[in-house]
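Notebook entry, structure prediction.
Reason for the run: the old model in the group folder had no record of what sequence produced it. Starting over properly, with the input documented here first.
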Amino acid sequence: MAGRVCIDGFNLSLEKGSGIATYARTLHDGLAGLGLETQLLMGPARDPGSNGLLNEIALSDGVPVKSTRKSVSRFLSNRTSRPVREAVVVGRSGEVIAPRTEILDRADVIWSCQDIFHTANWDYGAHSRFTELRLGSATEAARTDVTHWTSVLPIREIRTANLYTIHDLVPLRLPHATLDDKGRYFGMCAEICRKADHVVTVSEQSKADIIRLFGIDETRITNTYQAIDVAGALEAASDDEVAAEIESALGLSWRGYFLYFGAVEPKKNIGRLVEAYLTSGVKTPLILVGGRAWLEESETGLIDSIVAGERIRRFDYLPRQLLTSLVRGARATLFPSIYEGFGLPVVESMALGTPVLTSNSGALAEVAGDAALLVDPLDVRGIKRGIQMLDADEAMRGALTARGLGQAEKFSAQAYRGRLAELYRRFT
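New structure, fully documented this time:
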């Protein structure tokens, strides 16, 4: 395929990453695998100037310039003018080492526009309008065919086709589980569904939700699912090496623990999972890996009261390589989330040969198919029985592992590129 595609780097600069950052990286690599020129839009805190090296440094500066209340007020007071924001190309000298954003080294072109993501969100909050952006100056010939926004962002590139990924409608379907401004989120999604050249999502469940709530024509929305690529991890180390690694680093034995990994927030159902585990009577430890976003008090109290014990251990964050090893070595991944747009931990676990317990509804049941033990996420006793079965039945775990490896192939990098190719033929 031929064409030039720019994706936003809004989530890529987060130190500990996010599910959307993972999505952005796999989208970039999928597009590159199709032979498309890949471009990346970054929003550093400093305005690009005449010094190319400083412009490059700003892309991954660990000490960004923080906006003050005065500067934000001055920005929001500009209610009459609506200038088009311009992005400029930043060259790469090879002098800057940016380990947290390795995608910067893989993209063909890097665009920079000072604080574009935050100021666009401020502008939408103040004026309910999308920020207009131009990749390059008005006098330059267009260098981009498609701009793909990897999440719900109130920005529109004025010379390209604009594709937006809406991963899920959690703020609207599960409002108690997020701190988003629901009216604002609804407004942004509604405008995207009205004006986008195309909407992309990551499961049939999310696609159905978006069509139902916003009335978008089915021809203007595509489910590409997400991609996983764990081949490198599997090739890098044998099971014996991984077993030694997790024993040395964390004091855990191969297949000797249950694992939850993901954000710690209400939709993830951690409170019920912990209650089910504690009442199950199993002695196999439960490891929780995930940074705390925010929790309802009932869940906070339960987790804080038991997490220091021997049966449950919690880590805010683990490096990606160690986390991958932890997934490979687990007896099973427990992920009975209430609502997900896709459920990356489920598919990653399957691809790494780890049995999975997950929810029997929505996108999680969709992506798991018959390759996981499915439970009602609201039924603590049902989750408990699932944990007991997985702990005691080695044959069941083996069968789930075998089916999981086959199910995960549906979300391989190769399968994902095929779905992207079908979508992008319309725009490049």
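Summary: The chain has a mean pLDDT of 90.
The old model has been moved to the deprecated folder.
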